[in-house]
Amino acid sequence: GDGDPPPSPTEPGLGSSGAEEPRAGSRYRGCADPAGGWRRPHPPRAAGSLFEAQRCLLCPQQIPNPLGVLGSCRGVGEMGAGTPILGGAAAPPSPPRSLFLSPPSMFQTLYSYFWWERLWLPANLTWADLEDRDGRVYAKASDLYITLPLAFLFLVVRHLFETYVATPLAGLLNVKEKIRLKATPNAVLEKFYAATTKHPKQADVEMLSKKSGCSVRQVERWFRRRRNQDRPSLLKKFREASWRFTFYLIAFIAGMAVIVDKPWFYDLREVWKGYPIQSMLPSQYWYYMIELSFYWSLLFSIASDVKRKDFKEQIIHHVATIILISFSWFANYIRAGTLIMALHDSSDYLLESAKMFNYAGWRNTCNNIFIVFAAVFIVTRLVILPFWIMHCTVVYPLDLYPAFFGYYFFNFMMVVLQSLHIFWAYLIIRMAQKFITGKVVEDERSDREETDNSEEEEEAAKNGPLSNGHPVLNNNHRKTD
């Protein structure tokens, strides 16, 4: 089994000098130990850089590098003796005897552990099985390096799109900005706003009133105007929604073009047929690179984008999506990955288009699109994804190989993503209820702008409607809610 120990010095097969002699059926590759004594198998030496191949500590045997680039070994490594080659895969190296690792040694150790084949691939499979040969091309980790510069290119394209496409479109749709009254500069109030809270309690308001020399009403008005200054403008929201709508629509059409003619689109068992020896198609390569680059760009710009109430959930979603896309590429889960990405893009463009019409004031159009979006979201995220796609990634692989770390990790991240879908479905259902009851549909995640009306409005919020400056009493004035 994979847990067999390395041969001992007295085990048959070791010569009088301690060197391991070749024997039929042996799973061990023998290497000389420069420290003397008996000789035992060694793990691969960590490559000197990400672009070098791994080699055994002393043997000339070259071990395939998962990054797909071969190079020369830089001599005997410092990582010391290790463990045997088991099941055709290199076991992770044993750490040096020294308690403290030098930075190069630490990097090499982490690198070897990170790319240990037992983490990424099923048993009895190695990175050598995924080397390009006979015209068949496989996914490599080094392919994803291009996604980072592409992410910054996306940010540039987005800026140009919002400036020269989204802004004129906003003008055509009559997206107007509200005139916002700025808060009067006040050092005392500004310090409390920045350091303590944007929403002071009544006791804080009274305390600030004394410190700043303003009335309580003036302090409340100042905080209301100051909060509105930090809220994104309607034009900013429209431009952001139009950019995402454009990308999601194009990505969905492209994704369907990539998978619609594939057998695994109609029979999910085909996703795992021949795994992991599944060559990569050019269309799959570009679909992955563009999707991953876009989500990197969303993560880079999240601090400057419109902040909603689910800001933390958005960060978790972007990180989980990036991890899932990257891992599915490393482990050659490409067929499953393309299905998941296309499924997600199927509803996102509908949501962004509904936002655009909402910002333009087209309420009926917004509500109609929202109905379609809610139906598509619930069917794809709460029905198809868990009961078809996740069933495909959880159940079908076990018919081919035993569960391994990558299997558990991938499906755990799918559960994280599905938890976010349930959370967003709850918000969508709340909005649907408002629509059914005749209320205006608004994004439950939005931070609504506060109006800067007269003092009578604030008094009405506390004491009920006003008539000639006095509260109106009705049959319910004694009730407390």
Automatic annotation (TrEMBL):
Q: Which reaction does it catalyse?
A: sphinganine + octadecanoyl-CoA = N-(octadecanoyl)-sphinganine + CoA + H(+)
UniProt xrefs under CDD domains = homeodomain
Stretches with biased composition (Acidic residues): 449-459
- The Homeobox domain is annotated at 172-233
Q: Which residues bind DNA?
A: 174-234
Determine the domain of life of the protein's source. Eukaryota
Q: What is the originating organism of this protein? A: Otus sunia (Oriental scops-owl)
Q: What is this protein called?
A: Ceramide synthase 2
Pfam families reported in the protein's UniProt record: Homeodomain, TRAM_LAG1_CLN8
Q: How does it sit in the membrane?
A: Multi-pass membrane protein
SUPFAM superfamilies named among the record's database cross-references: Homeodomain-like
